């Protein structure tokens, strides 16, 4: 695990990082976040490819499965401190949409189609 603080006074290249976090992307591993302080939003796509906004605040935890398109943004406070949990070495590589050619994306879509039936 590690801790990330997203605020203009603490995160190097803050403006650039905020833009990267908000770009729609996926990861090849699960993404697990626990909010320690502040607030933000994870946006994920539903089965019809429409956005669902998930408000996150202190004490909330989210797990985003590998292969799900998502993005993150702060609320008007422009501050969040989060614990990032992972197995092994962290791999924060984000693959911007379209990234449908990855096996993780196909596995997520298969899982989603089984849940919808």
Compose a concise summary of this entry.
Keywords: Amino-acid biosynthesis, Cytoplasm, Dioxygenase, Iron, Metal-binding, Methionine biosynthesis, Nickel, Nucleus, Oxidoreductase. The protein has 117 residues and is of the alpha+beta class. It has 2 helices and 8 strands, in the order E-H-E-E-E-E-E-E-E-H.
Mean pLDDT: 94
Query: How many helices in DSSP terms?
Result: 2
Main pleated-sheet profile: 6 strands, antiparallel
* Computed CA radius of gyration, to the nearest angstrom: 14 Å
Instruction: Count every beta strand, where a strand is a DSSP E run of 2 or more residues.
Output: 8
Helix content: 10-25%
As an assembly, this protein is: single chain
Molecular shape: globular
- Which residues sit in consecutive blocks of at least 5 with pLDDT less than 50? none
Tell me the fraction of residues in β-strands, as a range: 35-45%
Helix and strand run: EHEEEEEEEH
* Structural class based on helices, strands and sheet pairing: alpha+beta
